[in-house]
Structure formats: structure tokens, C-alpha cells
């Protein structure tokens, strides 16, 4: 493989600047061009400013910084990129502009040079459509900020050659990022895998199961995510994310798994974009989020008669908590004033109907995070306030509690099972390898683990059970389990088991 020395960057905006910095730091000569007069100079100021700060903080010597800055070459015309081995395009997200630039680049560059697009939503084959040599065209999708987000997706379009993919992989590896390879499919890999958190979070609030703040709290404190779906949407901006949701849904031929929420359009129309507009799912004052205060736990109901479902995962711990709170643990549900259950996938109403339990005194405790983490209680539409408060008081002993309305799979089961199912389907469709799915989601989305590992930890059988139960209760095809998932559960093997090679 020919060693890539010279990199061209076209488009010196947010992404272009990061790409320039990354490759200059990796020791390449970087040539940058932008159609807007002054854009390259601004990008140079930005990048050199960062490098100078590195010197002030002792991260690099003056000499190293000067060498690094010397490797960045501002260009006045596209022709100045003629000797580049790889050119990365990071101009506006518009198919016409990209197509015509790629055609111009083909005329300027050597025949063995690679042309890559940083597009986040366009079909790479479409960008290459007017190129004479589409085999040297690929997607190269970075994340913002480029030097810190240490993953890049190489998009192999239908005509991209293996040699092009291999050369880009070596280039990215050499720059210290993790290179993952994805097929030219909507959302590629990371944006595709990231659908579950948003779509299911939105569906939960659409169904009035929980508040925005409660969903975020549970995803952070019970599921271990850095941010919940609404915090993330406020950060990226609903105007931007809303378009991505629509575009991926349409590009996947209205696949129910990606169906966007009707809650989004009115909020975009009202300018509730998120942090940048001062209000989104949350309100911000001086960029500080204004949260609703947490509801304080009620006083313990000493002597209340509690029955704890024998099938509950945390049966013994719940008995201990009830006794510690002065409750009387009884042997039969008929004698109880409060029933505690721990369903997987089922809501309180259905679980009570299936098990002949009185939903008026039933409260569910989410078994997924266990009692060590933030605890979720779930009530049926007819659970009495006495039963609800008694359960709240008992579970608030030594832990934080959030109460949600009836929902198949609480909040964490619903969202995590959806994330696992979408990742399994990415593997099923051969969009990326298991390893690349795992690493790209962990690095690119910052999830606590790769999505298939999350499923493996919960248990494939359990994930399947949650999805089946959600589909049975809602009748919604979005929850139908991926064949990747159901086959591996049927065979009793790990969700990370790749397909056997056919040849
Ligand atoms: N911003 C992100 O978080 C992000 C993340 C991943 C991918 N992307 C993708 O990266 C690309 C660039 O996004 P951005 O946020 O850096 O945009 P930006 O608006 O910050 O920068 C685009 C730059 O391209 C220049 N430009 C426009 N048309 C040009 C042309 N024909 N020739 C040369 N220069 C031209 C503009 O003058 C501008 O400086 C888009 O395809 C976008 O979808 C963006």
C-alpha cells in the first residue's frame, strides 16, 4: 500500500478545522481550501490558537508547535491540492455541491488519489455518481470535535474498492483514531445505532409513562449512560436532530423501528431547539439548566401488610427492605395492602391480569438496574395513592426513587432492549462487523458499553422476552426482534457471535 503523505481538506468549517488539526498532528502535510474567501485564514487562526495553547500548557515544545503549524498549507485554489494522496471533503451538506466538487477534484488530482466525503447523511454512491472512477471514492465520517472523538467511519459505497478502504483504514489508524467500516446505508453505523435512545425516549413521553427529566435521570443513574435522550437532544439541537430522525426513517423506507415522534415538529416550529435557543426539553438560564425539584419520599407506613411476588428478582432484598421499614410481610397476596412485583417487559396492568393480582394495590420495581442503583417504581392506572406512597417510602430507604406510570418495560428495559435490537439488526444486515458496532458506539456515542455487550450482560433471552412482551402489549412492529437476536438466543450463544463465513 502506498504511504499517504499529503492530505487535502476542502471546506474549512467546524469539521474541516478538526480534520486539518488531526492530520497535521499525525505528521502529514495538510493542504486546505475553502470556497469562501477568508475561511481558510480563520481556520488557520483557530488551529494555531489551539496549538499555541498546547505550548503554554506544556503539552508540546515551541519547536514541535512550529513544525506542526508549518505542515498546514493554506491554498487559494483547488489546483493547489493536485499532489495530495487523499482529499477529504467537508463542505456544506448538499448533494449538488458535493457532486460537482468531486467531479472537479477528479480533474485536478492524480488518478491514484483517494477522494473521501465527511457527509453525515447523504448516500456516498450518490456523491460519487458523476465521478469517472468511483472506486476511489468513499465516505470518511468524523465526529465533532474531530481530535477528541477518536473514531471515524469509513463508508464503503457500492463501487468503492477494497484498496481505497484499506488505505483509509491505515490512514485513520495512523492518526490514532479507531477506524470502523460501514456500508453505505442510512445513518451509516453510529447514527443508525444511536436511533434507539431517541426514538424510545420520545415514545415513552408520548405515552405519558414518565417525564422528560425522569427518563434522563433513569438513563443516567439507573442505566449508567452519560446523558439521557432529552439532554442529548438539547445539546445537539432539535432542529438538527429532528431532520436526522426524519431522514433516516424515510431512507429506510419508513421502517417502524425508526418512526419519528409527532412531538418534534411543533417544538421545532416554536423554536424549542435546546441549549442554543435557551429552551428545549429543559429551560436554561445563563446556560444553566432549570430542573424540577425531586419529589420527597413520604413517611413510612408502619405495619402495612406487604406481599412480595415470589418471582421477583430481588425478592429477598425487598423482604429485608419491607421489614426494615416496619412493614408486615405476608404470605398471600389476598392478605396484602401492598403488592410488590418485578416484571420483565410487562406493565403492571398486564402482569396483574396474568397472575390474578389486584392492580389497585400493585406497585412494580424495575429489576433491571437492581436495588443498588436508582430505583424505579411503576404503578397501574388504578394503583391507590396509599399503596404508591407506601412503596415509595419503603424503597426510598437507602436509595433514590423515581415513579413512572404503567409502561411495558419501565424506562430502562424499554430503551436498552431497543438499543440492543437495533444494533443486532445492524449486524444482521451486514452493515458493520460486531467489533466495529461495539467500538463505534462506545467511542462515538459514549455508551457505557457496546450495544451487543449491553444485551449480553442483561441476557439475550431476557432482551427477547422484553421485546416480545412490548410487541404483544402495544401491537407495534417497531419492537419485533431482529433475527440476529432471536437466532442467537435459540442457539444459546452470545449475542456477539458473528456469522460463520459462507465460503
Ligand atoms: N458539524 C458536525 O457536527 C458534523 C459532524 C459530522 C459530519 N458533518 C458533515 O461535515 C460537513 C461539513 O460540516 P461543517 O459542520 O463543518 O460545516 P460548516 O458550515 O462549518 O463548514 C463548511 C465549509 O465549507 C465551505 N464550503 C461550502 N461550499 C464549498 C465548496 N463548494 N467548496 C469549498 N468549500 C465550500 C464553507 O465556506 C464552510 O467554510 C457536512 O457534510 C456535514 O454534514 C458535520
TrEMBL record:
Matches recorded under InterPro entries: 3-OHacyl-CoA_DH_NAD-bd (IPR006176), 3HC_DH_C (IPR006108), 6-PGluconate_DH-like_C_sf (IPR008927), 6PGD_dom2 (IPR013328), NAD(P)-bd_dom_sf (IPR036291)
UniProt xrefs under Gene3D superfamilies: N-(1-d-carboxylethyl)-l-norvaline Dehydrogenase, domain 2, NAD(P)-binding Rossmann-like Domain
Top-level lineage group: Bacteria
Domain 3-hydroxyacyl-CoA dehydrogenase NAD binding: 6-184
A GO MF term: (3S)-3-hydroxyacyl-CoA dehydrogenase (NAD+) activity
Enzyme class: oxidoreductase
Keyword Metal-binding included in the entry's annotation: no
Transmembrane feature ranges: none
Key word Oxidoreductase present: yes
EC numbers, comma separated: 1.1.1.35
Keywords: Oxidoreductase
Pfam families, alphabetized: 3HCDH, 3HCDH_N
Chain ranges of the 3-hydroxyacyl-CoA dehydrogenase C-terminal domain: 187-284, 409-492
This protein's name: 3-hydroxyacyl-CoA dehydrogenase
Amino acid at each position: 500500500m502506498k504511504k499517504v503523505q499529503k492530505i487535502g481538506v476542502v471546506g474549512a468549517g467546524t469539521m474541516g478545522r478538526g480534520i486539518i488539526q488531526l492530520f497535521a498532528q499525525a505528521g502529514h502535510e495538510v493542504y486546505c481550501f475553502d470556497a469562501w474567501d477568508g475561511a481558510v485564514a480563520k481556520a488557520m487562526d483557530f488551529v494555531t490558537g489551539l496549538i499555541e495553547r498546547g505550548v503554554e500548557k506544556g503539552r508540546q515544545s515551541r519547536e514541535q508547535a512550529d513544525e506542526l503549524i508549518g505542515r498546514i498549507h493554506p491554498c487559494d485554489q483547488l489546483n493547489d491540492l493536485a499532489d495530495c494522496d487523499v482529499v477529504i471533503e467537508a463542505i456544506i451538506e448538499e448533494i449538488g455541491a458535493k457532486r460537482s466538487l468531486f467531479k472537479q477534484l477528479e480533474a485536478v488530482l492524480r488518478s491514484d488519489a483517494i477522494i473521501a466525503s465527511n457527509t453525515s447523511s447523504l448516500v456516498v454512491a450518490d456523491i460519487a455518481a458523476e465521478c469517472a472512477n468511483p472506486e476511489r471514492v468513499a465516505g470518511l465520517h468524523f465526529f465533532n470535535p474531530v481530535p477528541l472523538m477518536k473514531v471515524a467511519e469509513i463508508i464503503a459505497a457500492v463501487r468503492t474498492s477494497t484498496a481505497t478502504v484499506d488505505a483509509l483504514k491505515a490512514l485513520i489508524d495512523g492518526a490514532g483514531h479507531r477506524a470502523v467500516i460501514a456500508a453505505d446505508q442510512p445513518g451509516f453505523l453510529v447514527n443508525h445505532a444511536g436511533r434507539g435512545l431517541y426514538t424510545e425516549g420520545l415514545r415513552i413521553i408520548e405515552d405519558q409513562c414518565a417525564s422528560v427529566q425522569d427518563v434522563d435521570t433513569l438513563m443516567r443513574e439507573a442505566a449508567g449512560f452519560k446523558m439521557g435522550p432529552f439532554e442529548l437532544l438539547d445539546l445537539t439541537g432539535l432542529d438538527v436532530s429532528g431532520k436526522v430522525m426524519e431522514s433516516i426513517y424515510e431512507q429506510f423506507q419508513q421502517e417502524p423501528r425508526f418512526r419519528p415522534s409527532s412531538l418534534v415538529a411543533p417544538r421545532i416550529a416554536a423554536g424549542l431547539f435546546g441549549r442554543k435557543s435557551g429552551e428545549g426539553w429543559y429551560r436554561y438560564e445563563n446556560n444553566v439548566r432549570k430542573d424540577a425539584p425531586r419529589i420527597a419520599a413520604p413517611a413510612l407506613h408502619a405495619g402495612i401488610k406487604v406481599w412480595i411476588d415470589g418471582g421477583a428478582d430481588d425478592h429477598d432484598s425487598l423482604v429485608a427492605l419491607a421489614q426494615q421499614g416496619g412493614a408486615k410481610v405476608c404470605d398471600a397476596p389476598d392478605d396484602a395492602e401492598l403488592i410488590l412485583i418485578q416484571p420483565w417487559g410487562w406493565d403492571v396492568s398486564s402482569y396483574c391480569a396474568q397472575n390474578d393480582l389486584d392492580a389497585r394495590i400493585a406497585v412494580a420495581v424495575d429489576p433491571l438496574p437492581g436495588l443498588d442503583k436508582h430505583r424505579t417504581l411503576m404503578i397501574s392506572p388504578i394503583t391507590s395513592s396509599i399503596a404508591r406512597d407506601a412503596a415509595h417510602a419503603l424503597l426510598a430507604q437507602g436509595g433514590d426513587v423515581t415513579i413512572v406510570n404503567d409502561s411495558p418495560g419501565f424506562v430502562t428495559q424499554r430503551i436498552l432492549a431497543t438499543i440492543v435490537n437495533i444494533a443486532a439488526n445492524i449486524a444482521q444486515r451486514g452493515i458493520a462487523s460486531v467489533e466495529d458496532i461495539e467500538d463505534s458506539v462506545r467511542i462515538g456515542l459514549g455508551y457505557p458499553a457496546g450495544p451487543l455487550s449491553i444485551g449480553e450482560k442483561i441476557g439475550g433471552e431476557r432482551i427477547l422476552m422484553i421485546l416480545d412482551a412490548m410487541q404483544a402489549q402495544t401491537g407495534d412492529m417497531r419492537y419485533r426482534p431482529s433475527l440476529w437476536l432471536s437466532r442467537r438466543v435459540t442457539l444459546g450463544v452470545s449475542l456477539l457471535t458473528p456469522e460463520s463465513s459462507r465460503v
